[in-house]
Amino acid sequence: MKKFLFILLILVLLPSVYSQEGIRINREVQGTASVGETVNVKINVLNPYNEEKTFSIEEKLPNDVEMVYPSEPHETKFFNGIKVSFLKWEKKISPGNVISLEYKIKPKVPGEYSLSPTTVVDLSSGRDIKGKSSNIVVSCVANGICDRGENYLNCNQDCKADANDGVCNPAPGLCDPDCEGMEDCAKGESGFSIWYILIPIILIGIIYLIYKVGGNKNSEFNTPTKDAE
Fold first, then answer.
1. Does residue 99 lie in a domain region?
2. Is residue 54 part of a domain?
């Protein structure tokens, strides 16, 4: 009798477990992009149940992006003083059908952007399931200027090895202001210093002034005078 009840319990629970695991979340997004390029993101959600369900779908947006569509995030929260933006939808999906949601963003700085897993909640049961994360590698657009967010690692076309870009490049003989000990570098104890050029120019100027003033005094004393006729 106990064995029969155990088997019956499994048969009762199995459909709900299968249905919950049957929810499918798929995100379509390109793996590479450039700064300022429009990136299309598409989210597909499958309703595996044999009845219509209403789902809440939440997507966390990465930082340093500009919204193209929709023009603004649906919700903004602060976590430990950090602003985080979200897109949220509430959609009814027919049995066995798939709904697709799209949004468009523009990355502002180069680097690797991580899209957090999409969260889908079955509002009738409160159960939730998450998709998979996605990564977008964003390259810089070379313009000869080391712009905000660019550094020697992600945009060496614009940022030199010793640029003030927030990244320390500890190469021997290199004066990088982002590295510790840059005050020694600024004094000229290692690497190149602007004083190597300024000091000789100042000395030459002082010598020239001394020579000029001294020459004028000598000419005043040595100027011959004519005898009165």
1. yes
2. yes
The model's pTM is 0.66
Residue 116 is part of which domain span? 25-139
CATH of residue 123: 2.60.40.3880
Mean pLDDT computed over 122-143: 94
Q: In the structure, what pLDDT confidence band is assigned to residue 207 with cuts at 50, 70 and 90?
A: confident
| Number of domains present in the structure of the chain | 1
Q: How does DSSP assign the chain, residue by residue?
A: -HHHHHHHHHHHHHHHHHHHHH-EEEEEE-SEEETT--EEEEEEEE--SSS-EEEEEEEEPPSSEEEEESSS-SEEEEETTEEEEEEEEEEEE-TT-EEEEEEEEEE-SSEEEEEPPPEEEETTT--EEE---EEEEEE----SS--TT--TTT-TTTS-TT-SSS-----TT---TTSTTHHHHHTTSSS--THHHHHHHHHHHHHHHHHHHHHHHHHHHH---PPP-
Mean pLDDT of the chain: 82
- Residue with more model confidence, 186 or 11: 186
Number of CB atoms found within 10 A of residue 163's CB: 19
Mean pLDDT along residues 6-15: 41
97 found inside a domain: yes
Q: Flag whether 73 is in a domain.
A: yes
